[in-house]
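Sequence design from tokenized structure. All designs in this work follow the same two-part layout: the structure record, then the generated sequence. An example of the structure record is given first.
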């Protein structure tokens, strides 16, 4: 009887865990797919809130915290040139989410890509006074992301964007940007995310920038 009850309890636990896993994956996939079509600050805010709710419910998964951080960065970018204070607020929120993700998995190229994006966001809010502080943080994070995974196309994309937008007198280069975007495009041909939930964004950005660099 005890053995029967043990196996019955085990079956219930496995079934419950499986159902929770299915709900998590379904919720994540729905919101990850929405990232491809979201362009507005409000849209990214809704996604950030949803990813944070998923993360706080799961607690051991780094991916929802990663996506929440990414969404806050994107909200910050929508305020560029209009509301520097909003950019700082979103950078702080992104940092908070990223720190929670890094507490769960540290040696992760994707997380350092977002760390680079946060530093760039902070710098963009006040370039003249923050370049010397945030610039090195961004460069160090990008170098770490490349060290952890040299085949990650998002590393090339972020570096290419820097080259594209930075004036030549400060180290920018449209020629180098194009080379990096082409490198990212090549990497996407063989890049395989660890699962359907793992980061796979950026290919559309590559196509856009290459169309501007013909």
């Amino acid at each position: 009887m005890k053995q029967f009850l043990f196996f019955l309890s085990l079956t219930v636990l496995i079934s419950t865990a499986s159902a929770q896993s299915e709900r998590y994956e379904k919720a994540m996939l729905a919101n990850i797919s929405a990232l491809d079509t979201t362009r507005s600050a409000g849209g990214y805010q809704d996604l950030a809130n949803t990813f944070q709710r998923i993360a706080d419910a799961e607690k051991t998964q780094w991916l929802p915290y990663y996506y929440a951080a990414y969404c806050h960065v994107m909200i910050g970018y929508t305020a560029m040139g209009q509301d520097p204070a909003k950019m700082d607020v979103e950078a702080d929120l992104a940092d908070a989410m990223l720190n929670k993700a890094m507490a769960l998995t540290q040696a992760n190229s994707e997380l350092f890509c977002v760390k680079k994006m946060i530093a760039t966001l902070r710098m963009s809010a006040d370039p003249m006074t923050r370049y010397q502080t945030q610039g090195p943080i961004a460069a160090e994070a990008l170098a770490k992301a490349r060290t952890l995974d040299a085949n990650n196309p998002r590393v090339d994309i972020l570096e290419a964007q820097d080259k594209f937008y930075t004036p030549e007198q400060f180290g920018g280069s449209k020629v180098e940007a194009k080379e990096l975007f082409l490198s990212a495009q090549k990497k996407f041909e063989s890049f395989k995310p660890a699962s359907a939930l793992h980061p796979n964004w950026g290919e559309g950005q590559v196509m856009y920038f290459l169309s501007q660099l013909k």
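Residues 45 and 75 are 7 Å apart (CA to CA). We note this feature because it recurs in several other targets discussed in the main text.
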